[in-house]
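Much of our argument rests on the idea that a fold can be written as discrete symbols. Part of our work consisted of pairing the sequence of a single chain with a tokenised description of its backbone. We regard such an encoding as a compact summary of how the chain folds. The amino acid sequence and the backbone structure tokens for this protein are reproduced below.
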Amino acid sequence: MSPGGDGGWMIDDGALDWEDIRVFLATARSGSLTDAARALALSQPTLGRRLKRLEHVLGAPLFDRLPNRLALTPLGRAVLDSAEAMGAAAAAFARRADRQVAVPQPVRVTATSSVSTFLTTHLPELLSDTGADLTILSTRAALNLAQREAEIALRMDRVPVEGDLVTRRLGRFGFTLYAARGLRPDWSGPWNGAPVIGLPETRRRPSQSGWVDDTAAARGGRIVARLSELPMRLDAVRRGVGATLLPCVLGDRDADLVRVVEPPDALREDVHLLMHSDVRELPAVAAVAEALVRLFRRHADALAGV
């Protein structure tokens, strides 16, 4: 990229590719190559190559590589709004085309790992109820429904109010601490240094991680490890490494695990279904949405941990 005659910038060579811009958008939203690659169903090397190609065409870096995240450079911030507008236009084009032509494709549902695990536990039930193929995207990244990164999003508590979205409350998700049977004979008294598997440390309160840390400190437990992802914590608790936080719908159905404490109200979170208004009447999307409503209704008590 070189200075233009009016003080702006001109692209030196190469052609802009929408797929490269899509990669830039996903990376800017997540701040992580790993999360962006997962959201776009690309390998991380492929995503990295596309990002480098775009930076080469523009002639300057779009991100600063920091230790734990990617941060937009001044150029990245300058072009982000234009890239968002391109993404919105492309998504509108695709949604209008979908309304005219019924293209068979999996309906993409994005959710956190806790909700995704619940869905996969009941996947045969869900598939038979919908008659549609499914893609379940387990990610903490906030995938953009308006830009067709998913058709349905299941989100806890914080529901976006911007955009032309249709929302529906599905139910409540309860969480508490579980441990392998036999790890301790009694959890009702002082824990005397009993091992606890925490979540990534945070000072934010209220939060799941903060609740685990505060509970362990108050009862005399000891944080022996911190694991960010639900499958890692589930594997560790089953191996007897320590007590850890799990969704009640998962911990209660495992005969090898016991509740350490009763689910606190502070950790019961509402789950909402979100769709963009342009896709809500597509038959496959509508079928999946209604099947999700029925699934959460059937398992309401187990989900809430009551």
Q: What stands out?
A: The first helix runs from residue 18 to 30. Confidence is low (pLDDT under 50) at residues 1-13. The chain has eleven helices and 14 strands. Residues 123 and 134 are 9 Å apart (CA to CA).
